[in-house]
């Protein structure tokens, strides 16, 4: 599909008619701005996505990054595309004005991110990671650290990474083995020498910028050489590839991981301190590494959801275009017709297109709704902050998992052609397959949702969500009555499922079924927002169709997902491992 595979009409409907982002101009951070300003930025992002990012997407899949002479070489078109995005200043959209940014609402920045990710998700990931990195430094770093490590990223002369995982440590970050030994104090604060290996580091090496600022989780050694075990011993360090005095730091890419998709972004094995020790500076205080990194991780999780939603949209638009043009078979009600009909005449193809539309629209709605909550919570809205905390694992996981379902259907509609590299839907699927894995797997998100956000939550987040769902159902128009009935039934099932998990009085056993709870809750949230969107005055037939499809075909699955939770199943918690 040529150009930016995104429907601006739908995006504008979500932003301006449904979310009413014009009201965000009333917030102190955005006073003096208006819809015209934001539309200009959206138009710029649209143009850069079409003209710079989209043309490099296919080439980045065929020409993977190379590690040559110690330097990671990115596919040239992708390198140029990232530079164009940075030179346009689009990475500064949500950065405060007094820190060199545009001070736009995060909701607008999220929309620009969606367009870039639909065009070339691998290229878009470079600035996404860097924006999150610099935000952490601006929030927790000293003035000198901000000037040395965040300002170059905002100027586009550096890019940033997050270095958490290790070869034997994925999500269990308390087991991180990288060590940081105190090495004095200078203008940038407490200095350390880091030694260790990091794995799965996106953009850990690249030739787009000369400087790379790594945020590294490590355990600081005390005077006696000991470290605190577990996650409480983790600290965060800014480790630049080039030191402030111009010398090259003791940081090296020792290998590249060859990925199924998303190949344009180098995925690196990183060695810190193989020679004299990599110099790094403490961000915040010792022992606060994980809480600080959660800010970056939560921001990245919203970014993951946006990327999955964008790829679901791209797959939908691609397969819809193909189904309208491709003729195959006869209609069920005209079997003797002399000529074959477009695929769109077949009910099962219509079902798959409707499913893709509902998933893509629902995913984008979830992500942009969460982005608006970020804006409101930043202005002191406590309900927005509470709801955002509850929804974050859903924002990350539901578009990721269901986006794959949509992309699967896109391939199916293409038939055998869809399984070949000549058609782009197979690359869309491969690119999206990463999203359920990184920034916390689906299982990790389920434990977060059911454990921290439901069983042990004291903020009232679930009650707030259930109340918001009821309000939407109460205010829906009469022509969506069937959708209202389905949503209320799903809401009740979710409430009963959470109550059953509480009644187990055994958190470990309850959390064994956390992924089922996550799937069910994600469907309920998607059904809620699709109904809310379809109830918007300017919603079209497409939004109402998507809502009706989801209500009839998808929401009934909520009870099935919750069946083992309600039954208090302990099968996976107590099974004999040797029987597997």
From TrEMBL:
Domain Acyl-CoA oxidase/dehydrogenase middle, residue spans: 162-272
Entry keywords, A to Z: FAD, Flavoprotein, Oxidoreductase
Record flagged with keyword Flavoprotein: yes
The Acyl-CoA dehydrogenase/oxidase C-terminal domain, residue ranges: 287-446
Superkingdom of the source species: Bacteria
Family annotation (Pfam families): Acyl-CoA_dh_1 (PF00441), Acyl-CoA_dh_C (PF12806), Acyl-CoA_dh_M (PF02770)
Names of required cofactors: FAD
Domain (Acetyl-CoA dehydrogenase-like C-terminal) ranges: 466-574
InterPro entries named among the record's database cross-references: Acyl-CoA_dh-like_C_dom, Acyl-CoA_Oxase/DH_mid-dom, Acyl-CoA_Oxase/DH_mid-dom_sf, AcylCo_DH-like_C, AcylCo_DH/oxidase_C, AcylCoA_DH/ox_N_sf, AcylCoA_DH/oxidase_NM_dom_sf, Diverse_Acyl-CoA_DH
GO molecular function, one term: oxidoreductase activity, acting on the CH-CH group of donors
Family affiliation: Belongs to the acyl-CoA dehydrogenase family.
Protein name as catalogued: Acyl-CoA dehydrogenase
Organism whose genome encodes this protein: Antarcticimicrobium luteum
